[in-house]
Amino acid sequence: MKTRSIFPLVLLCSLALAFALLDGCATRQMSCGGSCCSVCALPKAPELTSLPPILPAPASQDEKMAWFREAKYGLFIHWGLYCQPAGEWKGQPVAGVGEWIMNRAQIPVTEYEGLAKTFNPLQFDAEAWVQMAQDAGMKYIVITSKHHEGFAMYHSTVSPYNVYDATPFHRDPIRELAQACAKHGIKFGFYYSQSQDWHEPGGMGNTWDFGPDGAKDKNGAYDKYLREKAEPQVAELLQNYGPVCLMWFDTARVMNVNNRGQRFVDLVHKYQPACLIDGRLGVKGDYASTGDNVIPSEGEQGDWEVPATVNHTWGFRKDDTDWKAPSDILFKLVDVASKGGNYLLNVGPTSAGVVPAECQSNLLTVGRWLKVNGEAVYGAGRSPFGDEFGDFSTKLKDANGKPVYLEFTDWRCTTKPGKLYFTVFKMPHGGFQLPDFKNEIKKAYLLSDPEQADLAITTTNDVRQVVIPREKQNSMANTIVVEIAGDQIER
Ligand code: GLC
Questions:
Q1: Which of 15, 156, 167, 477 could form a disulfide with 119 if both were Cys (CB 3.0 to 4.6 A apart)?
Q2: Distance (Å, rounded) from C-alpha 349 to C-alpha 80?
């Protein structure tokens, strides 16, 4: 009796184990309800708990922007079906950024949809992603909820073409991330491609299946798409995922007619009055977005953000491992902060659900520097100088005969009341020469020095120089804090 009753159980367990080993535990949701995770060591889907309430309307624009001005550094995540082909279609590399593969290879909707059937990122672990962002020193996360491919990476009731309904994964990663962000106190926002949608006959951009965009605009198909998919999906995102720190719209196409852009603004204001709108909606948002990877050559007024890649693509490409070095990332972050902006740096996770290890390690190196020197970045203001950014060459001319602008990368300056932070990337042998200003210096020390020991300042011919003992220098960058009399720089 005993052996007969146990036999089917043993058989079932062995089968589950065999399947788990064979297919990376893809059967775990159905066959063993998560219990085989101890066998295959895949992260378990977290228990879903409630999300924090939506934030009330801020009293002023300054109050609305306060967290953004403090944050300075965010993580962008491009994740969608495109991470599976990863830059290659039918054995051939497809040029360009990974998330544009459907467009670049003119893949018909019916064929591209097939990617959903195999999307099963079982190594996805929202907690690990958010922990990584936190350890990297990033203060907000913006993820693609729907990119131009038209596939919703969350459980949408507006369209079944979404990660929960159309894939074997059958989970809502955005819900899991919202929860992990709430737990870690990291702000969470959504990229949403409002205009381009290559899956829909009325969306912009898919001319190979649905003909020219101009016709869709004129014959009502585009407005139908906006009304029946884009707007309801944005409303879903604003209602179902707790506080949304910002909506990142992109590639505005014919948005400023028929009130199209304004309708998105109205939705954001209606559901989440504290949520910011980026600069690519097509009508005015709360801050300006620069071009991809474009860092202005000088300080810019107002609120703005630079979206940037860690390699040369947004969505994962298996052939792009040309990662920005930690020193490069750090320079760009401090450069942007010293010009008054935010740096939103992207990662493209794989189809397994992981951020490539080398890329993670680079981000974490920057994070370790920020842990010690973050005071010079978070909530810091623009440089009062400007000469450090660069100058026009006296010799080199461009194709139009104009002098070439040469960027200087030796140091950057950020500020807080009564303090100047000089982050020095190339330490001169004799010491760091301070730019010319009249204010009395009260104290100078290294931000990395817990003792804040005074650094010697020498003056030769009215030029002040800060000397930093070699043994105290960090190889990536050193921040000298100069405390001055008065809040304004006098030159
Ligand atoms: C560009 C790309 C798009 C990407 C975006 C991020 O607009 O076309 O794929 O999402 O930049 O800034």
A1: 167
A2: 9
Sequence-distant (≥ 6) Cβ neighbours of residue 385 within 8 angstroms = 413, 435, 489
Q: Is 97 in the pocket of ligand 1 (CB under 6 A)?
A: yes
Q: Is 63 in the pocket of ligand 1 (CB under 6 A)?
A: no
278 in contact with ligand 1, CB cutoff 6 A = no
Tokens of 449: 């020095």
What H or E segment, with its residue span, contains residue 178?
Answer: helix 173-184
Whether 95 contacts 215, CB under 8 Å: no
Structure token pair of residue 347: 């990662």
Tokens representing 58 are: 């801020």
Name the packing angle between helices 126-135 and 357-373 (round to 10°): 40
Cβ of residue 422 lying under 6 Å from some atom of ligand 1: no
Alpha carbons within 13 angstroms on the beta-carbon side of residue 111 total: 12
Alpha-carbon span 132 to 151, nearest angstrom: 25
pLDDT along the chain (491 residues), means of 10: 47 46 42 49 92 97 98 99 98 98 98 98 98 98 99 98 98 98 98 98 98 98 98 98 98 95 98 98 98 96 98 98 98 98 98 98 98 98 97 94 96 97 94 96 97 95 92 94 94 90
Query: What is the 247 CA–ligand 1 centroid distance (Å)?
Result: 14
Q: What domains are there in the chain, each with its CATH number?
A: 61-376 (3.20.20.80), 387-484 (2.60.40.1180)
Could you tell me which of 242, 414, 416, 302 has the C-alpha nearest to residue 61? 302
